[in-house]
Amino acid sequence: MKDNLVLRVNNLSKEFTNNNETNEVIKDLSLSVEENTFTCILGPSGCGKTTLLRCIAGFEDYAGEIFVDDVLCKEPGIDRIMVFQDFNQLFPWKTVIGNIKFALKKNGVTDASEQEKIAKEMLEKTHLSGFEDYYPHQLSGGMKQRVAIAKALALKPRIILMDEPFAALDAMTRTELQNEVLKIFEENNITFIFITHNIQEAIMLGDRIIVLGLGGEVLIDEENHIQKPVTPASNGYGDLWKKLHDSLYLAKR
Length: 253
Ligand SMILES: Nc1ncnc2c1ncn2[C@@H]1O[C@H](COP(=O)(O)OP(=O)(O)O)[C@@H](O)[C@H]1O
Ligand SMILES: [Mg+2]
Hints:
This protein is an alpha/beta fold. It folds into 2 domains: about 5-80 and about 155-250, Rossmann fold, CATH 3.40.50; about 90-155, no CATH class. The protein has 7 helices and 10 strands.
């Protein structure tokens, strides 16, 4: 076994019961993730991607084991921070810097000058310097997502969990943010687990791409060696795209 694993999911199963009907969304899923890697998880709608991430984040009960480092995750913790798809992850009545300082305060950084220092550093990392005193409604969707990432980084998690964070953005903003996330990944020692249903996004971002099928099973788990920055003209892009595309459409049937 590799000794630099940050996440180990062992025999994870998750079912939901509604109106006496049980839906087993994830069945006996095992996977592990090495630290400082970027893993993209692709899968058709409803295959359990969000559910998997919510189990890792500690928002759901589950059967099996999920370890971050050697700690069993049964509750949310600041070692795993989730960045969501929607833009309502910021308090509208707090400024950009106020949102980050609040997250720090809630997580044990009580010294005001320390909060200010860390928040400014994170805003610099996410290229938001100069927007400290803006309110969320004064920012574009892409900027709000960057504040959410800055807030996550401020808490120095081991893993950042992203659930289709750019799905609601226009194509250009999306490409810009993908590049920024890659830069943040390269500049910080951090592990990303990034969910998407967009094949191009997975190839552009992931060092490793996992495709889940409709039963929550792993259909593909493979390293992506295409040199970054990836474009559709990159060597190997077409073959990988086709492989992922075919497995996704097979999964959908
Ligand atoms: N809280 C819940 N209660 C009942 N069923 C749920 C709940 N959350 C998710 N599900 C069901 O689990 C399945 C997987 O959902 P989800 O993880 O959101 O899929 P994905 O993110 O891959 O689109 C779906 O069939 C969904 O209806
Ligand atoms: Mg989802």
